[in-house]
Design a protein that fits this description.
Elements (H helix, E strand, L loop, with lengths): L1 E10 L4 H17 L3 E17 L2 E13 L3 H9 L5 E8 L3
Antiparallel strand pairs: 1-3, 1-4, 2-3
């Protein structure tokens, strides 16, 4: 299995419960495609580098996981269409 890190930026305009549900959905997607979550790092609300959808702030979460090489493409295609996710990025970690 390969190590990956997923950064998810969730809109700051939503309630805490919705934000938590969105992150839980992302974690469920990782597990659905055979990933094993090793670490979750919530950075909380941060200022964005530039305005996205008329927002200046977002909630940052970093999820580290192990998965097969086909999993990131499947996860990205699902996260791309999720409500409240304004940015995401999956990167392969060096061993």
């Amino acid at each position: 299995m390969t190590k990956y890190e997923l950064c998810v930026v969730v809109s700051a305009k939503i309630e805490d419960e919705e934000r938590t549900n969105t992150i839980e959905k992302v974690k469920a997607l990782i597990e659905r495609f055979g990933g094993v979550i090793t670490e979750i790092d919530d950075w909380g609300k941060r200022r964005l580098a530039y305005e996205i959808d008329k927002s200046r702030e977002g909630y940052y979460s970093f999820i580290r996981f192990d998965a097969e090489t086909t999993a990131p493409a499947e996860i990205e295609s699902r996260v791309r269409i999720m409500d409240h996710v304004i940015r995401y990025l999956i990167v392969k970690q060096e061993a």
